């Protein structure tokens, strides 16, 4: 069942990539210069961003033991957006050991955002899922405002639009190549800790009695999720709900075992973003317009989030 | 060689307000020890101290002659397993999945379940007689069934020492007896410490009892020596009379009218 699902999803992903390569505002043939320079990197980048967001959702839900956790909802994306925008606007762009300063700055702010949200939502040493979400929403609104302010002052309205709504329209090969290592490292680290994440399903204390070094695991995994979010935000702005929808959908099909949840979420995250970005390019193509992919995701994702919230209430959890 | 040695243990959640106060006892191989005492006497805190969930203020806990603080978490988890009073069933897990979590202290990175893991899980499932449940979803089990699954998960850790916090409190009397009999059989492989509210059940099934009050040890020893009118008066402030069975090994209290 699980191996077959991996196979089916891989095939779907290949099919979607194939479709996305040839469907667009204009149909491009293989040898068209725009195919190699624009279309191909864009499709690849959408897949990478999907992987980054889906896996950071899996990690955050596992570590925070909160099924509603997601980098966008917790304000980690918006925090990262502030970091990336600051780095760009202040011209503090440099490259250390082949790593660009933009994702690093985004990472620092993402991490700060997680920390703030987590501390804000702690009441007497405990966090309830709903308080965590509320703190995330508030921080997200705050960071989005700062982000808009930064970019407005810098005088580029087009960029505000890009960052806040989330878009892959600026995709290029440099983006693909700088994003790839984060995606690879992220999924390897997540998989490395898959057994700890499974033990955490029993709660922090029970995981500790099973030999899991809770603080260390939490630190590394939250850092990883923040870095993955930051890498995604740096190239695509704020795209929500991928990290929420994907793990939920996979859990419904194969259960919460992270050994399957992680690879299957990675594949489905890529599939979802490739399709969503294709839709973003195509839907308003007759009007010669492109919808930001973040808008496509929010159109589907926000109702889904509300559905989850409501189901949790009905189940009385 | 004792599996567990506790000496002058003082522990609790804050250094200023210890819950367990100056407790000393040891547990030998194959013993089934019951911890009894009124509500708030520190039974659960004592149990949780042994598995490293509660800070030790002073005194020492030794597991097979290793000091608790010198064992790393994984080593400790291979020696001591803990079954809490309440455990959330994991949505989407089968019984086998849940029992397999007990193998966490043995896992290797990036590898699938080893033959050892499968053997240990099958053994734990057979010991708890839950073979018929293995493919069931844990969320669909009754309280009694889930309790046995939770214990099988702990057994899959292959611990020398199995700790259970009020294992029978939520079970009906038929399941209480069934589970206690099962636990008594298990101790041929390991030692067990469990907390109990029901003194008579504890006296009937345990090989040794520890009676606590306000975190202090009131009495320890064979059930016969611990369950006495004087000790029960000191711990619970109720008057009882004691009935002994024919071989005088077991005793039970009866409330005085």
TrEMBL record, chain B:
Key words, A-Z: ATP-binding, Nucleotide-binding, Translocase, Transport
PROSITE patterns for the chain: ABC_TRANSPORTER_1 (PS00211), ABC_TRANSPORTER_2 (PS50893)
Keyword Ribonucleoprotein in annotation: no
Pfam families in UniProt: ABC_tran
GO molecular function ontology, one term from the record: ATP hydrolysis activity
InterPro entries, per the entry: AAA+_ATPase (IPR003593), ABC_transporter-like_ATP-bd (IPR003439), ABC_transporter-like_CS (IPR017871), P-loop_NTPase (IPR027417)
Domain ABC transporter per the UniProt entry, residue ranges: 4-239
Full protein name: ABC transporter domain-containing protein
Source species: candidate division WOR-1 bacterium RIFOXYB2_FULL_48_7
């Amino acid at each position: 069942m699980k191996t077959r699902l991996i196979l089916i999803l891989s095939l779907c992903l290949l099919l979607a990539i194939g479709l996305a390569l040839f469907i667009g505002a204009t149909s491009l043939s293989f040898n068209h210069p725009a195919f190699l320079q624009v279309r191909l990197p864009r499709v690849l980048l959408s897949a990478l961003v999907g992987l980054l967001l889906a896996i950071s959702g899996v990690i955050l839900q596992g570590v925070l033991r909160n099924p509603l956790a997601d980098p966008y909802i917790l304000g980690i994306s918006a925090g990262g957006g502030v970091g990336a925008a600051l780095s760009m606007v202040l011209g503090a762009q440099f490259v250390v050991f082949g790593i660009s300063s933009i994702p690093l700055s985004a990472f620092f702010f993402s991490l700060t955002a997680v920390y703030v949200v987590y501390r804000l939502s702690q009441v007497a040493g405990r966090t309830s899922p709903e308080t965590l979400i509320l703190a995330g929403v508030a921080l997200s609104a705050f960071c989005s405002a700062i982000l808009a302010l930064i970019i407005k002052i810098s005088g580029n309205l087009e960029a505000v639009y890009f960052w806040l709504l989330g878009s892959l329209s600026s995709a290029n090969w440099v983006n693909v190549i700088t994003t790839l290592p984060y995606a690879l490292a992220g999924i390897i680290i997540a998989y490395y800790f898959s057994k700890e994440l499974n033990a955490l399903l029993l709660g922090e204390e029970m995981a500790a009695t099973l030999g899991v070094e809770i603080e260390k695991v939490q630190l590394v995994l939250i850092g990883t999720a923040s870095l993955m979010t930051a890498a995604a935000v740096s190239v695509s702005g704020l795209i929500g709900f991928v990290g929420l929808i994907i793990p939920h959908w996979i859990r419904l099909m194969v259960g919460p075992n992270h050994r399957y949840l992680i690879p299957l979420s990675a594949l489905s995250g890529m599939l979802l973003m490739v399709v969503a970005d294709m839709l973003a390019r195509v839907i308003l193509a007759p009007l010669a317009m492109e919808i930001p992919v973040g808008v496509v995701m929010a159109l589907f994702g926000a109702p889904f989030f509300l559905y989850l919230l409501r189901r949790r209430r009905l189940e009385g959890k | 060689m004792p599996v567990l040695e506790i000496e002058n243990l003082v522990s609790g959640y804050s250094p200023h307000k210890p819950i367990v106060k100056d407790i000393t006892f040891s547990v030998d191989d194959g013993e089934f020890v019951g911890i009894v005492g009124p509500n708030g006497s520190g039974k659960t805190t004592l149990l949780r101290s042994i598995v490293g969930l509660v800070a030790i203020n002073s005194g020492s806990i030794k597991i097979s002659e290793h000091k608790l603080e010198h064992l790393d978490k994984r080593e400790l988890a291979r020696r001591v397993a803990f079954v809490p009073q309440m455990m959330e069933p994991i949505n989407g897990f089968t019984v086998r999945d849940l029992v397999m979590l007990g193998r966490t202290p043995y896992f290797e990175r990036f590898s699938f379940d080893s033959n050892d893991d499968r053997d240990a899980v099958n053994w734990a499932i057979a010991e708890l007689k839950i073979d018929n449940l293995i493919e069931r979803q844990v969320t669909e089990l009754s309280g009694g069934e889930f309790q046995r699954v939770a214990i099988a998960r702990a057994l899959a850790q292959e611990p020398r020492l199995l700790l259970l916090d009020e294992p029978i409190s939520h079970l009906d009397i038929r399941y209480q007896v069934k589970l206690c009999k099962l636990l008594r059989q298990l101790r041929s492989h390991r030692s067990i410490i469990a907390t109990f509210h029901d003194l008579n059940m504890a006296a009937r099934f345990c090989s040794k009892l520890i009676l606590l009050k306000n975190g202090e040890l009131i009495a320890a020893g064979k059930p016969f020596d611990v369950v006495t009118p004087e000790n029960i008066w000191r711990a619970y402030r109720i008057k009882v009379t004691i009935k002994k069975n024919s071989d005088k090994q077991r005793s039970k209290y009866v409330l005085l009218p």
